[in-house]
Write a structure and sequence with these properties.
Number of helices: 4
Number of strands: 18
Shape: globular
Distance between the termini: 13 Å
Radius of gyration: 18 Å
Order of helices and strands: EEHEEEHEEEEEEHEEEHEEEE
């Protein structure tokens, strides 16, 4: 028997596009396989992955988010997807809350919705405090790397390890336009120092102090934007004296505003969330 079709919504945050399914209404039996099938940009819907919206496992959260990359691997967190979920829940009438607690594999994130009329014009996400040492994510003696150097092909890249619940290696370059993101990113992602692979950010501080950033995401490849990557880039820039505690991160798909607060050590990300279209498909 052919399974009935599932309603989905495609959304993007700064060009980082995912397919969203409300699992309060629809069951996705094999989300990894569905992510691979639907994410195919030639034979499927086309996206960076699949996001499932559901009930949380804890009374401390309102809803939950699970993310499956285009290759079927499960991600711990996605800042752009979390903003989109805030817009989805509010504008589809699932909640009237403007402050939503979202359960993710990297902890509960608080979404603060910016409302004009009945529309969500932007979302600020409390991404919690960055982690600068984690032996499960980086194989150094103390689980950290500040200004470490890795080789990819014929080049060496000096960068900083930052975890936003998921691992990032941020490397600042002189001219980002000359970097072959796919070639170098794919090698750095799978460097032996990262036990479970790593997201790679290539960044350049512009003349006006903004930070131009391009991303190679583990499991998805080049994406238009990465929320956790923007946060990691801002933290790395502050740690290395390239910026202060507030940064504008310019990605291929748009700009994210990041603040790393001194009072509580949390990173706050503000950016857009947009609907693309609704549809139905077989999982």
């Amino acid at each position: 028997m052919t399974q009935s079709k599932t309603m989905f919504t495609k959304m993007h945050g700064a060009g980082n596009d995912y397919i969203y399914v409300n699992t309060l209404l629809y069951n996705i039996p094999d989300p990894a396989a569905t992510a691979i099938k639907w994410s195919d940009r030639h034979k499927g819907i086309g996206s960076d992955g699949l996001v499932l919206i559901g009930y949380p496992d804890t009374i401390d959260a309102d809803y939950s988010m699970r993310i499956f990359n285009a290759d079927g691997s499960e991600a711990m967190m996605c800042g752009n997807a979390s903003r989109c979920i805030g817009k989805y829940l509010y504008e589809k009438g699932i909640t009237d809350k403007t402050s939503i607690r979202l359960e993710t594999l990297s902890g509960i994130k608080v979404l603060q919705l910016h409302i004009e009329g009945r529309k969500v014009t932007g979302v600020t996400v409390d991404m919690l405090a960055p982690t600068l040492a984690d032996k499960t994510q980086i194989a150094t003696p103390d689980g950290s790397m500040t200004e470490g150097t890795l080789r990819a092909g014929n080049r060496e890249f000096t960068g900083t390890f930052v975890s936003m619940g998921n691992p990032h290696f941020v490397t600042f370059v002189d001219d980002i336009s000359t970097i072959d993101i796919a070639a170098y990113g794919s090698i750095l992602e799978r460097n032996d120092i990262f036990p479970d692979r790593c997201n790679i950010e290539f960044a350049q501080v512009t003349a006006d102090g903004d930070i131009r950033t391009r991303v190679w995401e583990r499991g998805s490849g080049i994406t238009m934007a990465c929320g956790t990557g923007a946060c990691a880039t801002a933290v790395a820039a502050a740690l290395t004296g390239r910026s202060g505690r507030k940064s504008r991160i310019l990605m291929d798909g748009g700009t994210l505003c990041i603040e790393w607060r001194e009072d509580n050590g949390h990173v706050y990300m503000t950016g857009p969330a947009e609907f693309v279209f609704d549809g139905e498909a077989e999982p």
